[in-house]
Amino acid sequence: MLLAIDTSSLVLSCALAEEDRLIAEWTVQKRLTHSEQLIPHMDEMIKEAGVSKKDITAVAVSIGPGSFTGLRIGLATAKMLSYIWKVPLAGVDTLEALAWNMAGAQAFILPLLDAQRGNVYAALYGAFDEMWQEEKEEAAPIDQVIEAALTHGGPVIAVGECADKYKDKLVSAGIKLAPPHSRLARAGSVAMAGLKKIREGKTDSPLSILPNYIRRSEAEVLWEKQHRKS
User: Fold this and answer.
1) What is the pTM of this model?
2) What is the signed CA dihedral for 27, 213, 71, 18, rounded to 10 degrees?
3) How many CB atoms lie within 10 A of CB 167?
4) Most exposed: 97, 105, 121, 189, by fewest CB within 10 Å?
5) For 196-214, how does the pLDDT look when each residue is reduced to its tens digit (9 = 90+)?
6) Are residues 176 and 193 in the same domain?
């Protein structure tokens, strides 16, 4: 059984899953402090599902892109659990996990997360008979991302927090929006992607896994500017 965690955005989500079923999922989209909420709700979910911690044989976690603080909280928790329980750890790209929300949709899936200043973190995935990555993840202006997504032909479905933020642009360009429950980050999808990685032997060390920020934080950029002048 796999425990999955996603704290990459305002959404806080954790789930329990096996190869052929989602056992439990706890997801909330509120401005709560992930550091205070994650472990208590995760413990409660495990308890309510009637699962013993010794039944958990693997851990999966979203590693970014996303909220710098949120990613650190989720990753630190997953690394600790993997190390203490001595179980495999699978780091899952946040954009890939969002694409798994629409697995089997017979469409191209466009996950969109806020990269600030009019930019989005985006990638493009094919969700037909199997899931594959069509375009690598990057941070780019939303208009550029829309134009690139439409060059592949076929239906395109947008997921992620910026599917709502840029709804008008997306719809006017002919891109569909996923249903509300399939737009937000979900640990259940992290679990599905994580189980696939573990089957393929693509696990990570809890001692060396790092978040995938794609871009540097504003604090890092500011620090560099200040020290370049001095």
Assistant:
1) 0.90
2) 60
3) 13
4) 105
5) 999 999 999 999 999 999 8
6) no
